[in-house]
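pasting for ref
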Amino acid sequence: MANNKLTKAEIIENIQTKLGLNRPDVHSVIDEFFEEVKRGLEEDRVIELRGFGTFEVRTRKGRDRARNPKTGELVAVDTHGVAIFRPGKELKDFVWKLRQGEEK
């Protein structure tokens, strides 16, 4: 089975190759982009990337009774934040067309 993951390192390499920039500069820009997204989420801001999608934090309520899927043990789960990504219309349309006509 082929590896179908696209890693951060591959993204950096692809951008470096396409734009002819040096690797450390591309790496710094990508890292700073991720830090800006995290900082925005930490400040309870919605991160909107037009044509791509939206990141935000939602609160998931805690529960007294949840199961550890590995052990089956009952555990309590505190209220906590979860990162949510909603794809934008252009990304949805692009992905929708990727597998049209394929048999399952």
